[in-house]
Amino acid sequence: MKKPDGKVVLLGDMNVGKTSLLHRYMEKRFQETVSTVGGAFYLKQWGPYNISIWDTAGREQFHGLGSMYCRGAAAVILTYDVNSLQSLTELEERFLALTDSASADCIFAIVGNKVDLTDDCALPPDENRPEKSVASCSSKVRKQVCAEDAIALYKKILKYKMLDEKDVPAAEKMCFETSAKTGYKVDYLFETVFDMVVPIIVRQKAEGPPQTVDITDYKPAKRTKSGCCA
Amino acid sequence: MSVKAFKLVSAVEREMLMGDKNYINIECIECCGKNLYIGTNDCFIYRFLLDEKTSTAGKITFAATKQLHKYLGLKKPVSELKAASALTRLLVLCDNTITLVNMMNLEPVPTGARIKGAVTFTLNENPVSGDPFCVEVCIISVKRRTIQMFMVFEDRVQIVKEVFTPEQPCAVAVDGYYLCLALTTQYIILNYNTGVSQDLFPYCSDEKRPIVKRIGRQEFLLAGPGGLGMFATVDGISQRAPVHWSENVIGAALCFPYVVALDDEFITVHSMLDQQQKQTLPFKEGHILQDFEGKVIVATNKGVYILVPLPLEKQIQDLLASHRVEEALVLAKGARRNIPKEKFQVMYKRILQQAGFIQFAQLQFLEAKELFRSGQLDVRELISLYPFLLPTSSSFIRSHPPLHEYADLNQLTQGDQEKMTKCKRFLMSYLNEVRSTEVANGYKEDIDTALLKLYAEANHESLLDLLVSENFCLLTDSAAWLEKHKKYFALGLLYHYNGQDATALQLWVKIVDGDIEDSTRSDLYEYIVDFLTFCSDQDLVWKYSEWVLQKNEEVGVQIFTKRPLEEQEKNNINPDDIISCLNKYPKARVKYLEYLVVERKIEKEKYHTHLAVLYLEAILQLKSVTTDNCTEATELLLKLRSLLQKSDLYRIHFILDKIQGTDLHMESAILYGKLEEHEKALHILVHELKDYHAAEEYCIWNSENRDMQYRRRLFHMLLSVYLNPSTSDCALVMAAVDLLNNHAAEFDASLVLQVVPDSWSVQLLSPFLAGAVRQSIHTRRMTQAALGLAQAENLIYKYEKVKQRGTPILLSDKKMYKPWDVHGQVKEKDSSVVIRGFLWVTDRGGQMERLN
């Protein structure tokens, strides 16, 4: 098996469309999927690098696995359903903590899937959307989450990670709205993320195996301490 | 699903072990080489010899023969057994104590070496000590939250390390310094050397028995939530997607590329390569599943069974047989490292080819092509599927065992014409692609012949391209096929390619004559003409020349006029033969003579005369039929004139005789001109034709390449014709004036003035006069300039001459220079002498004096 050079992880509540997004990107078609059990993974050749993309299970039952899947990840794609505010809230409450094990320079993308189900999807690309008032957004009956909410979440993530906005990609660039069903912006999402992952891979390669650094450098201190105290 | 990856074979039946003592249960097993050990709940250890037998049908059976049994003397069950073959020791866990017994006779070591206080233990399969006579044992201690590492030697044990865990451990696996531990609520990786630990994922050991299984270097398989088999490396990451077991898995084992799991009712087999479940074997009451050196053993309380893996090749063939190409290829690729390289390559190629045919049969041509290509398929395997495509002479025999199940395309498509067409189209494009690659080496004939047949059948335009470029089509096979499909033109090309031009021409002529039908080329006649033109076989050219000329004289004559130059130089057809052949075809004859005279510029009187005569006859013929100046006649006239003017080779008198008495005045004028009888010619032009312009032109072209004098003579002649006193035609006078005024330079003005009638005014001739004067002045000046230049040049030469003579001359009293007047004055320059570059003269006293 080819050894992946970098890892991208899809996180998000169950039924937001993680598997469908990945399927749409890899197979170029939409297919009804069943609830993912445990996780699945694909290898994608991107330039000279092999990027592994992990599709995680959104079900609560498998929540505990997330941390392991995220370990050493170069990018995390946090996915929600634009028709479910709850799915966005879950990202912050349940999934964000899982990314603690990701690579220190991990990038984050926030993706609102299923825009095909909203009245909004006929509108041109979401570049126009941030200019709209919140009121006009909420007037769309079915769409519960608008781009501003995602951007706000992105900023919260930066705060949580104690990252400076200046050092990371802009929120507008990292918040996507997609439709796995129609394929809308799916390729764009993955390609944008991969392009950003490449410099991280290059840096990781220059610094030596990331996993080794992971364990011996900063993880242990915390762990041994807790081991002693418990 | 259902690949048959394993077969369950009984190894030890209950009677052999316990007879009718129903209370005896199997607690644990171990297998090392041919030794199978069983530990029971009544504190016995049994040793069996396991013999593997393969029947002639390839069926594997195991026969276990009991060697001995040993009672350990405790009334506790034997909970674990592990063999350390390097030490010939068996490690026995019973009553929380690990004892060392001899592997063969099961006697305890005399030293009584043991490890006390062990709940469970495991061996480090990736030891760190490097001592071959020592095994590393890791135990979960009876002490709370304690793991201990031991080194076990032949007859002693030694504790190496004791580490504490955050929670009570309940299962452990070791790889090098890494412990993979199932704690009460989670799995962790712990490096016992550094103490560093890494959380893997949470797991509730109260609800389900955890599984921790080392599956390879630095990688473990763990029972995860929701019945997942999770893979984790010592770095705490997962490199494979999990496999999905049932919720109540109690044991797992590895037999590459499969993960085998045991639950209450089934043994399930998942592939590590694609995580898919591949096989399910019903198995009730199983409670042990372990792999020993690649042998997977399951046991119930009462009996032991072996999961015999079916050969990978067999599994792959089964997958292919059920058309599961993807899986078969994944399995084959995964097997690479388990099979010697050469064997693998042969096997893998064959699998690719088989997979290709499966895809092909499903009309998945792109995939099929890729598989054929990477599997380096002998293309003839594919061709042979199509009836009649392989040449009858082909020695090809399909590989055995067959790569596919189809007799031919009819069977494959079940007579569906549309599918058949698609398949044929695919073969066309495939053969076209491979025919020039190395895949085709060795059987280019078969490929090209098949391709030709396909093209012919499908009426494909590439048929002609194939035949006119380098190809290896077999003649007899292809010819029969082309004839069958009425591709006569192509058949001709085939004959031509095989050097049978006569046969080719015969066919094509038949097509043109309508004897056989083939509409490939509407311009086949022109094609044949072209073909003959470039045909080096002169006999053929002669043979078909009549036919070609009968069809169309003017086009047909090209077979003679457009022959390639190289041929003309070496191997020329005698033009006289051609002309005599063309006698029946006047138009062709004229064309051919034109070709000889005008194009090839052959300087032979007879051709030139012949051509002129032919022109003349044709013109006279036309003139006799119609009085109008039809374009054809005009064209001919122009040609004739051009010939008469430009050629000097024809027999002038002969032509002149022919032309006399006709109204071809211009032509006779030209002929007179050729005879230098300019007066006659000009007379005709001026008096007969009254074409003054033509007369002037005559003067000009007749004096071309002659000197000035000649031209003047002609112009003066023309002037005197104009001014002939016998006629007093006003038009002639005007012509004379115009002639003078327009061509002042061509006349000698003084002569003109003598002949010009006195009655003419100066005004009338002013342009001529002005021109003449200007010309005269111009001439004078030019002459002066020329003179000056000549003098200058002369001086330069003189100077050069004097310089060249500059050799010293010795002068003495005795040797006086007599030529000079030594007494007189220096009279002339000539009496000087140049010595060493200086000019000297001698004075009266004979003294030399330097002048410069």
TrEMBL record, chain A:
PROSITE patterns: RAB
Enzyme Commission identifier(s): 3.6.5.2
The organism's place on the tree of life at top rank: Eukaryota
GO cellular component, one term: Golgi apparatus
Catalysed reactions listed for this entry: GTP + H2O = GDP + phosphate + H(+)
GO terms, molecular function: G protein activity; GTP binding; metal ion binding
Any one Gene Ontology BP term: protein transport
InterPro entries for the chain: P-loop_NTPase, Rab20, Small_GTP-bd, Small_GTPase
Keywords (A to Z) from UniProt: Cytoplasmic vesicle, Golgi apparatus, GTP-binding, Hydrolase, Lipoprotein, Magnesium, Membrane, Metal-binding, Nucleotide-binding, Prenylation, Protein transport, Transport
Enzyme class: hydrolase
Membrane-related topology note: Lipid-anchor
Cofactors required: Mg(2+)
Subcellular location per the Swiss-Prot or TrEMBL entry: Cytoplasmic vesicle membrane; Cytoplasmic vesicle, Phagosome membrane; Golgi apparatus
Similarity annotation: Belongs to the small GTPase superfamily. Rab family.
Protein name per Swiss-Prot or TrEMBL: Ras-related protein Rab-20
Automatic annotation (TrEMBL), chain B:
GO biological process: autophagy; endosomal vesicle fusion; intracellular protein transport
Domain of life: Eukaryota
Keywords: Cytoplasm, Protein transport, Transport
Predominant localisation class: cytoplasm
Entry keyword Cytoplasm: yes
Protein name, per record: Uncharacterized protein
Pfam families referenced in this protein's UniProt entry, alphabetically: CNH, Vps39_1
GO cellular component, one term: membrane
Keyword Protein transport appears in the UniProt entry: yes
Record organism: Melopsittacus undulatus
UniProt CHCR repeat ranges: 563-727
Subcellular location: Cytoplasm
